[in-house]
Amino acid sequence: MIRHAAALALACALGWAGGAHALTPEALGAKEGDVTFKDFKFRDGETLPELRMHYTTLGTPQRDKAGHVTNAVMVLHGTGGDGHQFFRPQFSDVLFKPGGLLDPARYYIILPDGIGHGKSSKPSDGLKAKFPHYDYDDMVEAEHRLAREGLKVDRLRLVMGTSMGCMHIFVLAEAHPEFLQAAMPMACQPTALVGRNRLWRRMSIDAIQADPAYKGGDYTEQPAGGLRTAQAISVIAGSAPIQMQKSFPTNAAAEAEAQAVVGERWKALDANDYIYQLDASRNYDPSGALEKITMPLMWVNSADDFINPPDLGLAEQLAPRIAKGRYRLVPSSEATHGHGTHTWAAVWQDDLKDLLGRSAN
After folding, report:
1. Which residues pair with 51 in a beta bridge?
2. CATH second-level architecture of 2-189+279-358?
3. d(CA 109, CA 149)
């Protein structure tokens, strides 16, 4: 289906994709489901009669004597992805394996599809550009309600998030600090998306909307020209210099990759879905309330991240305001993958181990 293909296309562009492996969803005993919220009200006042939140789970919830789930871990995906992106081998084969830090035999793992993504409600379901213009606050509220109301989890042992999911963590940690025992945001900044980070998103949206085939969002065929350009921009945004140099060591190899990007991969995207996904970050800015974050937190970025360049020094300014927070910048190396380093667990699993240890109670 186009929903899964779109997620995979963007995942490939941002360095998330991996090869075949043993720990497939089936091998891990994954279960999928939906929770529907009636008359879901968005922050801007728009309402959707039914908002569907899709999720995948691994493992079994464990409860204390009072009936509270004690072993729930929620992992939040990035822009254009869905919960299934975490079954790629660089993540699941490291963390979900027997004895791994997030072994499903020990933890109840929740992998939501955010609003506008995967199998959750989205513009391409039928409303097209009439779909409510959700933002990160709306997405986080739905993820919180999915856990509490849908899965009866009133506290997470851990929340992890990559890219957009990383930003969702900062919103969630400020809005519901009592809900989180530990947090691990990866590949983002807890401040407004401006400068280059805003530019590539805006340029991608403009490229799609300027295509005559877009027709104000009421298209019958995907606006190919705009989507080709947006897909190409996403490749640069997610680029990893060392990995790209290794993967495309000749002019011919680089040319072939460029042709693959503009020739076929855009066909996996839906224009409205992609515009909404990029635009949801428009008013994100948790920087004013970082002191509200009270749980142990491990924040990890990578030095070769084009989207969150360390040159700006934002993390060094903001991290000290998080009382129990720690920040690590992963140096560039042949083990890092640019922005996509967030899904290569071998790079930062020691940080996760430390966080789980210092947040145990």
Report:
1. 37
2. 3-Layer(aba) Sandwich (3.40)
3. 16
